[in-house]
TrEMBL record:
Catalytic residues of the enzyme: H188 (proton acceptor)
The organism of origin for this protein: Musa acuminata subsp. malaccensis (Wild banana)
Classification of source organism: Eukaryota, Viridiplantae, Streptophyta, Embryophyta, Tracheophyta
A GO MF term: L-malate dehydrogenase (NAD+) activity
Domain Lactate/malate dehydrogenase N-terminal as annotated: residue spans: 6-153
SUPFAM superfamilies, sorted: LDH C-terminal domain-like (SSF56327), NAD(P)-binding Rossmann-fold domains (SSF51735)
Protein's name according to its UniProt entry: Malate dehydrogenase
Residues forming coiled coils: none
Binding sites annotated in the UniProt record for substrate: R93, R99, N132, R163
Length: 332
């Protein structure tokens, strides 16, 4: 029997990531090849015409799984009945703008969209914040949508996770699908800590630690970390535009694994509400290694943390604590 359609909201849908993301959702990349979807697309009035163009292209693509499209500039209409919300819309940092000014714009966007989601989304709606500053936007959304369980509000660090897998596979000239269990700790920013301490590689003689096969700790602790941290800037330099297809693909990976589960023995990185695990301050949205079952994520517990990792995990937590304070100062 055909499944009932799932309503998926994409905010900022007329933007670059939106343009790459909506066809992936309509093709079943996010929720599976047998899951019909109803797409809700939100953008702001100056982008209304472009948004309508995206809607026209979705119609023209004749996606069999796509059962309807709502394209609107009204947040209430966009949020009504949605089961999954992917928040890509936000205010970008423009030349000469202070960090606080950008934060202030995004705090007010996420505050009002939190209220629209809280009042109109389907119960148990799963939220993924992509727009930067992603962790702190997600935290503001959580604060202003108190009836949505904190467990349902996450931010995207899967792109960083996938970048780390990609760098290891390039270095060893192996398939990316043979690398697993890297971790992105902390903020989706240049203080994030890409950690391979527990990562492994599938070899003909079983799983082997990444550290052993790379056999170059200087590279792993230096250039590897820096490359992953700075990859967004490198893409902008090369494309003159920020990453879009990889961000859209990572957003699909994030929701797919959250809803359908992570493979046995594999974890992924998600920005989630900290419960104090690994001595990360509670009350931040911080990226942890998680496994997912039956639509729920769980932080992987009991991983050893050496001194090098501890320092890096603390530094990115400190940045998030500062961002949180800055965001709160914008509220008052
Ligand atoms: N977390 C990650 O891994 C990651 C990766 C790449 C990009 N990003 C972030 O994703 C965001 C989107 O990137 P992009 O390249 O698509 O940008 P973009 O500028 O091309 O698109 C953003 C869209 O959001 C819309 N928008 C602005 N305010 C809005 C609001 N209040 N409600 C709804 N829509 C609104 C804009 O009109 C625009 O169409 C940026 O904040 C970017 O920094 C995050």
């Amino acid at each position: 029997m055909a499944k009932d359609p799932v309503r998926v909201l994409v905010t900022g849908a007329a933007g670059q990531i939106g343009y790459a993301l909506v066809p992936m959702i309509a093709r079943g990349v996010m929720l599976g090849p047998d899951q019909p979807v109803l797409l809700h697309m939100l953008d702001i009035p100056p982008a209304a015409e472009a948004l309508n163009g995206v809607k026209m292209e979705l119609v023209d693509a004749a996606f069999p799984l796509l059962k309807g499209v709502v394209a609107t500039t009204d947040a209430v209409e966009a949020c009504t009945g949605v089961n999954v919300a992917v928040m890509v819309g936000g205010f970008p940092r423009k030349e000469g703008m202070e960090r606080k000014d950008v934060m202030s714009k995004n705090v007010s966007i996420y505050k009002s969209q939190a209220s629209a989601l809280e009042a109109h989304a389907a119960p148990n709606c799963k939220v993924l914040v992509v727009a930067n500053p992603a962790n702190t936007n997600a935290l503001i959304l959580k604060e202003f949508a108190p009836s949505i369980p904190a467990k349902n509000i996450t931010c995207l660090t899967r792109l960083d996770h996938n970048r780390a897998l990609g760098q290891i596979s390039e270095r060893l000239n192996i398939q990316v699908s043979d690398v697993k269990n890297v971790i992105i700790w902390g903020n989706h920013s240049s203080t994030q800590y890409p950690d391979v301490s527990h990562a492994t590689i599938k070899t003909p003689s079983g799983q082997k630690p990444v550290r052993e096969l790379v056999s170059d700790d200087d590279w792993l602790k230096g250039e590897f970390i820096k490359t992953v941290q700075q990859r967004g800037a490198a893409i902008i330099k090369a494309r003159k535009l920020s990453s879009a297809l990889s961000a859209a693909s990572a957003a699909c990976d994030h929701i797919r694994d959250w809803v359908l589960g992570t493979p046995e023995g594999t974890w992924v990185s998600m920005g989630v509400y900290s419960d104090g695990s690994y001595n990360v301050p509670a009350g931040l949205i911080y990226s942890f290694p998680v496994t997912c079952r039956a639509g729920e994520w769980t932080i992987v517990q009991g991983l050893s943390v050496d001194e090098f990792s501890r320092k890096k995990m603390d530094a990115t937590a400190e940045e998030l604590t500062e961002e949180k304070a800055l965001a709160y100062s914008c509220l008052s």
